[in-house]
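User: My instructor asked us to take a sequence, write out its structure as tokens, and then describe one feature of it. I'm not sure where to start. Here is the sequence I was given:
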Amino acid sequence: MKFRIISLPEFFRRIIRRKPLRSATTLKTPLNRCLSLAHLTAFCVSSIIGIGLYDLAGQLVRKYTGPSTVFNYLIVSITVVSTSLCLAELTTLMPRAGSLYIYTYVTFGECAAFCTGWIMVSVMIINTSATAKAFSDAVNRLTNGTIRHWSNANLPSLGNSEIVDSTPDLLAMVFLILLALATLSGAYISMTASLVFSGLTVIILIALSVSCFVLGDVNNFHGEDSFLPYGFKGLLEGSLLSIFTVSGFEYVANASEEAKDPRRDIPIALVLSVLTCTMANLLISFGIAYVLPHWKIIDREQKNESWVSTQLRLKEAFALQFRLNAIICKTSITVHATEFLLKGSTRVFDLILKFTCGFSEFFNTNSKAPIPRWNQVNLSYTVLNVVSVLTDLFGEFWMTLYMKNHYQASTFSHFYCLRTILGGTN
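Assistant: Let's start with the prediction itself. The structure tokens for your sequence are:
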């Protein structure tokens, strides 16, 4: 690669130059177009359903909507489906990996695209690491903390700090290595695995919801100001909060360059996944209100335990099975959520190196699995370094943003707008 000195006017001309629309709308790509409608739908479900479902559902019923959570999700579904259709229009016009990076490059120029792309990559790396830590937490719950206790006893301590963990999280690191290898195998294999985990997640969520309706009582909807306990103000505030539970669908645009027919499949996948995830969240929230009166739900701040054991006072015979299903579902969510974050960040990283930095050699693909392998390895190494010392700092930030009373509904709406513009995750 040759470098040369350019003049200052040429420099400013280059940082505001825009990518030609014609090159962004073509369907020709070095990547393998192998993803079907089912793969794209599963990918979108992976990006929408998150760990916050378990914590947010109980808080939504307890503090904002009560049993009227049905109307809450009706409002949210109309808003989010409309937004997803707007995204579908952009994606079908420019079916390229990179989503917001490409859209910004075409409309605002190279400098804005460069900043947007690196923000997307940074947020994805942080969220991938945090999700891997969530997986480690889920497995430790299943083993009663055996792995964590062994790490604390046998691995060197890094000291007590709010920035780094006391010991490296080996389980999260192994989890990321396995997912990186799965992603290196190619889009079809990794997305098929994501399809399986997405199906497992939806099935378990339906099973949990059915359990709530079997064990609950319709009389729990009565009392404490009845069906709409917090009025229309609480309903609207809950709707703004619920947007977080069905956001993240914009990342399906990263898979458009590997879709068989992106202009037909992506709009369908967006609508199907948004409706599926909205229905799953609705059933979980409505099930909580059905099985336990909303004024008796225990706040997370009062008792830091999973809602499946504290908020749903099930019969003893069902308690262990219910908790186990919830943990398996949480583990399933972390698996395919981490996979889609790792894949999405790699695609954006590829485009930044190719178009903005000029390192097109890193975009070279392999004939057996046409993906940029070097970028996948480099990004996976970066994520491993982050997760090896990451604490619950990022998780606590998100949960604080969700749960604390002094954050008003306007904060959530403003943060969501900012998150959508900059390409954050849920």
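For the description part of your assignment, you could build on this observation: Residues 316-356 form the longest helix (41 residues). Try explaining in your own words what that tells you about the chain.
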